Amino acid sequence: MNPFPQPASTDAPTPPPHDLPALPGGIGLSGLRVYDWPAAPGSDGLCGGTPHLHLACTEAYAVTGGSGAVQTLTMSGFASTPLTEGDLLWFTPGTVHRLINHGDLRMIVLMQNAGLPEAGDAVLTFPSEVLADPAAYARAAALDPADPEGSARERRELAVSGFTRLRNRLESGDTSALTDLHTAALRLVSARLPDWRTRFERGPAAEVARTAAHLDALAEGDASHLASASVHRGGAVPAWGMCGRLDKYERTERTE
Fold first, then answer.
1. What is the DSSP letter of 116?
2. Of 67, 130, 186, 190, whose CB neighbour count within 10 A is largest?
3. What is the C-alpha to C-alpha distance for residues 31 and 252, in angstroms, rounded to an integer?
4. How far apart are CA 239 and CA 120, in angstroms?
5. Of 82, 106, 134, 62, which Cα lies nearest the Cα of 241?
6. Is the pLDDT of residue 82 over 60?
7. Domain 24-215+234-254: what homologous superfamily?
């Protein structure tokens, strides 16, 4: 069973067709307008996105407007980092993150290893009993095509409830809250690791190898690869992401 319905459940763009070059470094790129829905009654009432973590990818935010914060959980504890226009923030795999929207928070999201988040490298902080059951996780993470907004709100509320439990345990000194989450997340994605390896080797790793080959050629006085220079463009595809409404940039055509 695939517990990661795609593409609606991730915040990163889908990989390019194989005959088009990847974005620099094999990254993913999205425009994000963070959800302004207030949390359900009885919770903290904050507006924002669905808390989750990545197992293999670093993520970066370049804030283009509005204000808010990103709440994070790591072994160092809970933190809330303010976000305003012009800020740049990034975090490594394992960082549980929840975007908070104080007003019209917008950003460009740069995601390492384009292709991996789309293939499931994004595990939501549902309560432990949901994380322990792949079928329950799949149902909770899925978006209903007939009501994507309503189902996105529902999964956000469920993930916020799990995030709150994690935060409470961590702030009480129980770091096993995160190790339990890491173990559950790995169990959920383990069957997908061979596919991740293939995507990584065909994407980011291939980009690194291409640069190495270019440097080797230049060192030998060979600049022939420059003759194959080309220009490409893409378009923004709207989607319901975990953190907000997305414009997922996908490479679509060669312009010359």
1. T
2. 130
3. 17
4. 16
5. 106
6. yes
7. Jelly Rolls (2.60.120.10)
